[in-house]
Write a structure and sequence with these properties.
Radius of gyration of chain B: 36 Å
Number of domains of chain B: 2
InterPro entries (chain B): Beta-lactam/transpept, Beta-lactam/transpept-like, PBP_dimer, PBP_dimer_sf, PCN-bd_Tpept
Low-confidence stretches of chain B: none
Low-confidence stretches of chain A: 129-139, 146-153
Structural class of chain B: alpha+beta
Number of strands of chain B: 23
Keywords (chain B): Membrane, Transmembrane, Transmembrane helix
CATH superfamily of the largest domain in chain B: DD-peptidase/beta-lactamase superfamily
Pfam family, one (chain B): Transpeptidase
CATH class of the largest domain in chain B: Alpha Beta
Radius of gyration of chain A: 35 Å
Order of helices and strands of chain A: HHEEHH
Oligomer: heterodimer
Mean pLDDT of chain A: 75
Largest sheet of chain A: 2 strands, antiparallel
Strand content of chain A: under 5%
Strand order of the largest sheet of chain A: 1-2
Number of helices of chain B: 19
CATH topology of the largest domain in chain B: Beta-lactamase
GO molecular function, one term (chain B): penicillin binding
Largest sheet of chain B: 7 strands, mixed
CATH architecture of the largest domain in chain B: 3-Layer(aba) Sandwich
Subcellular location (chain B): Membrane
Number of strands of chain A: 2
Largest interface: A-B, 56 and 76 residues
Chain lengths: 161, 585
């Protein structure tokens, strides 16, 4: 009888322990799920960043190609622009013209690109005008990051070598 | 029943005892594995599944004076296939699953990789797990290949060097090899600045050899390289290269070079040449076109050196701009006859006239009293006979023999730039000295090595040396102004609105023990004379299509100078040149 009473007395304690154990297990499970979810999110974000880095590099290479001196000359020539190696200045103080104005006739050194550039990409001319601010700033290509190897951006690295 | 109790109890005790022993054994083993030998077991286990790899550091950029990128690092991809698993590709098109044949897929790949299908298809047959289809594919093409969704295509990403402006300053930047090793130019000379420190990391792989996600442990972070900042203006460099390439073609010359130095700072604004190397594809250039002749090539300068001789004679008091000489067109010294470049009757020239008409005999007449030792020391003062402070890799020191080794004829020929050799940058530096009131500044090509925060190291020290007095330098500059004002060739170098000064040079080229039939034509000078900003020179090597060799460099000089003045918004000159007689009666 005494044993029975003792067992009855321990009942709530056992229940608390079991419930506590269950609660901790469920909490652990939830935390694990949440962590796993975060890992997936982190993985997705890393993937997205790699994609954006790749896009950034592609665009930067296009911009670099478009802003290369060779491309500027070719484009300017297509627009009918001719360099004049005969500078003339107007002095505002006395309205005097300094130098002898001569028409710009252009020459082979100024109308045809003679400096090789195998990095130039054939790109369709942009439809929108570039903003003056971006046009005046020197080009700075984004530096590839050593810690972000973009091999997982779709197709994996070769399995064997 | 009475017997059952003790037996059962014994059995229970025995069971408990055995269980305790078993548990104890397991516990001991567990403690042994988990605590005592845990570290060594872990180590062995980790070694079996861990893979260490080097994380290559990103190489720094090479920038021009305005921050424009001349060389940078990008990702490129080697596209590979695993023929062993090549099979038709399943694709979802408009929600319907379709099987695309290997031939069709190969056709798509071939178009993107710019190779023929006939060449690609055989590579996809076999039992190999690796075959390279194309190396160094750009990111755009790589992405398009990814979008094809081919399960048996793989890509290896690696760093590659990109020179966005191609051959613009290619002679200076140099290039790297396919393995990323710096092979030439600034790339090699400043490799310590550009190359970062490789990192190291490990990751764990499963039994299938596949990397276990999130197992990467960084042992050492990769440290990116720093940037090298040059003093050159890449736009002007390009324009100069354009001009030189055009002149080489027009004159059927071997090559041409130009160098411009900022008079007040010693900074090299451009150091161009044609033909030159496109660092994106150095293999396309001839080996002799892959260097920097401005620094690495030495030649007999000829008459451009007379400015140095004149400065020496004036500075030492042996002559003035008006020193009178009577010069025939040839002069016998010892057993050697020295000629002027054209025949003329004995003429009464001043020192100004001698340089204006570029008379070799006249130069001897006004400089012969200057002791050889003194002339030699002045030559050294102007920077001849040693590499410039730029220290470009492979830079020549030229040839300037000790005056004690000069024989009787050499003593005279060195007065007009023979029997010694100089590099184009050495000669431009001498003209910078004359334009800067006699103060020579060390030429500077690299402004420094710059980190991400903009902190610069390896900034070259500026050294200023008074080689000749300011009065002497100005006198010589005014003499050289007469060459541009009055000389037929000099006039063609003039830029309208600016006072400029300079000197022609038509140097014979050594071939064996004598001289060959071709020349190195050059023009060196400074502008504007009233407030000198730039010293520069243009050299055309072995022009074959000219009516006079001296003329060869003039057109190129004028075009480059006008662009330099225009691009830097240099105010036009005011005032007139001093009146200096060229002849006397």
């Amino acid at each position: 009888m005494k044993r029975f009473e003792r067992t009855r007395a321990r009942g709530p304690l056992v229940m608390i322990v079991v419930m506590g154990f269950l609660a901790i297990s469920i909490l652990h499970l939830l935390l694990t799920i949440a962590t796993s979810q975060s890992v997936y999110e982190l993985s997705d974000l890393k993937q997205e960043k790699r994609e954006l880095d790749t896009t950034s590099q592609i665009l930067a290479e296009e911009v670099a190609s478009l802003s290369s001196q060779q491309n500027l000359l070719i484009t300017a020539t297509k627009l009918g622009m001719v360099a004049n190696s005969n500078p003339v200045f107007l002095r505002l103080d006395d309205h005097k013209v300094l130098g002898k104005p001569k028409p710009a006739l252009g020459s082979s050194s100024q109308s045809h690109n003679l400096v090789a550039n195998s990095a130039m990409i054939k790109i369709a001319p942009p439809k929108k005008k570039a903003s003056p601010a971006s046009a005046s700033e020197p080009l700075k290509l984004p530096v590839a990051s050593a810690s972000e190897v973009p091999i997982a951006s779709g197709i994996p690295a070769s399995p064997t070598r | 029943m009475n017997h059952a109790g003790p037996v059962s109890a014994r059995r229970i005790r025995l069971l408990v005892t055995i269980s305790v022993i078993l548990v104890a054994v397991f516990a001991i083993r567990l403690i042994d594995f988990q605590i005592v030998r845990a570290e060594s077991i872990n180590e062995v286990s980790y070694e079996k599944r861990a893979v260490a790899r080097t994380v290559p550091a990103v190489r720094g950029d090479i920038l021009d004076a305005n921050g424009n990128v001349l060389a940078t690092t990008v990702y490129r991809y080697d596209i590979n296939a695993a023929p062993a698993i090549v099979k038709p590709v399943e694709r979802q098109i408009d929600g319907i699953s379709q099987v695309v044949s290997v031939e069709s897929v190969a056709s798509e790949l071939a178009r993107l990789l710019d190779i023929k299908v006939a060449k690609l298809l055989p590579k996809l047959i076999g039992t190999s797990h690796y075959v390279n289809l194309k190396k160094r594919v750009d990111a755009e093409t790589h992405r398009q290949i990814v979008e094809l969704g081919i399960p048996w295509i793989f890509a290896d990403a690696h760093h590659d060097r990109l020179y966005p402006n191609g051959a613009v300053a290619g002679n200076l930047t140099g290039f790297v090899g396919s393995d990323g090793a710096a092979l030439a130019g600034i790339e090699r000379q400043f490799n310590a600045c550009l190359a970062g420190v490789d990192g190291k990391e490990t990751f764990e792989k499963g039994v299938d050899g596949i990397k276990i996600p999130s197992s990467t442990v960084v042992i050492q972070e990769a440290r990116a390289g720093r940037n090298v900042v040059l003093t050159i203006d890449s736009d002007l460099q390009y324009q100069a290269q354009q001009v030189l390439a055009s002149e080489v073609k027009k004159l059927d010359a071997d090559w041409a070079a130009a160098v411009v130095i900022e008079v007040k700072t010693g900074k090299i604004v451009l150091a161009a040449e044609a033909p030159t190397v496109d660092p994106n594809n150095p293999g396309k250039s001839k080996p002799e076109d892959r260097g920097a002749r401005v620094f690495q090539f030495a030649y007999e300068p000829g008459s451009t050196f007379k400015a140095v001789t004149a400065a020496t004679a004036i500075d030492t008091g042996y002559a003035t701009v008006n020193t009178q000489v009577r010069a025939p067109s040839s002069l016998k010294v010892f057993d050697h006859v020295i000629n002027d470049s054209y025949s003329h009757p004995p003429t009464n020239w001043t020192l100004t006239g001698v340089l204006r008409f570029s008379s070799n005999v006249g130069t001897i007449k006004f400089a012969e009293k200057v002791p050889a030792k003194v002339r030699y020391e002045y030559m050294q003062g102007f920077g001849f006979g040693k590499p410039t402070e730029v220290g470009f890799e492979g830079e020549t020191e030229g040839v300037l023999n000790n005056y004690k080794d000069w024989d009787g004829v050499t003593n005279f020929t060195t007065m007009f730039g023979q029997a010694l050799s100089v590099s184009p940058v050495q000669m431009a530096s001498a003209y910078q000295t004359l334009a800067n009131e006699g103060v020579r500044l060390n030429p500077v090509l690299v402004a420094g090595c710059e980190d991400e925060e903009g902190n610069r190291t390896a900034v070259p020290k500026s050294t200023a040396t008074q080689v000749v007095s300011a009065a002497t330098a100005n006198d010589v500059m005014h003499v050289l102004e007469k060459v541009v004002e009055q000389g037929s060739i000099g006039r063609s170098t003039a830029v309208s609105g600016y006072r400029s000064a300079g000197k022609t040079g038509t140097a014979e080229i050594k071939e064996g023990s004598g001289y060959g039939q071709y020349y190195a034509a050059s023009f060196f000078g400074m502008a504007p004379v009233d407030n000198p900003r730039y010293a520069m020179g243009v050299m055309i090597y072995k022009p074959k299509r000219v009516w006079t060799n001296s003329m060869a460099s003039a057109a190129g000089y004028q075009k480059i100078l006008s662009q330099v003045l225009l691009a830097n918004r240099v105010p036009p000159s005011t005032g007139k040149s001093p009146d200096l007689p060229t002849e006397w009666k």
